[in-house]
Structure formats: C-alpha cells, structure tokens
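Sample intake — PH domain-containing protein
Collected from: Phaeobacter gallaeciensis
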Amino acid sequence: MQQGTDEISFTPDRSAYIRAHAWMAAFAMAAGMGLLWAAGNPHIWTGAIGGLAAIALRGWYLASEEMAVVWRIADGVLTGPAERRVPLGEIETARSMGSYVQIITRGGDKHLIKYQANPAATLSAIERARA
C-alpha cells in the first residue's frame, strides 16, 4: 500500500502471491492424489506431481499480469483494472479473505484486491477513505 497526498494505491505483494500459490498447490496435489486413489490407480503419487506442475505453471504464467494490477483511491473513487470504478459511497461491504480484500457494492458487484502483504491495513485504508 502506498499513500500520497490525495491518492492511496494498493499494489500486489510477491510474497503473498507465492504463498497463495503454495496453498493452491498443496490442495491440487491432495486432490489429484485423492482422485487417482478413488479411481483405483496404483500410481497415486503422480497426482501430486500433476497438481504441483499445474499450479506452478499457472503461477509462472500469470505472475507478470497479476503483479501489474494496481487499485487506487482518489477523489472518492476506488479504481482498478479493466476500467473498474467504484464510488466509495457505493461500497456496502469490505472484508479480508486471506491475502485478498473483497469489495461488494450496493448493486451486488464484487471486486478482489488480490495478494496484499497486509490485508488488514488495506481494509483499514478503505474504511478510512469511506468515512
């Protein structure tokens, strides 16, 4: 999180990105092994390799895109990627989920500010800007 005089920006953290992918890899490895075991495959260990490879490839492929995403608060508006604009007065709920901060608008739109080093600080900054 970076704070200027009139703008607050939320940038992704590489450590949080890697940590999130490590959790996804652990789940994918367990799921792959479980599915192979349930199917009666005698080589269930290959599920772990497949799960790890899939998440490692995903993490490598998406890293440059995900690390470039910046959310900003300026002039009473939260802006994000793909021209997302959320007036602070339209935010109904803001909550942290792991390394993410989820924003839900009064209209039901949901946005994720992903891979935050300190999601509690991000949430606090959003709440302060709303007040």
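Post-analysis note: Residues 14-67 form one domain.
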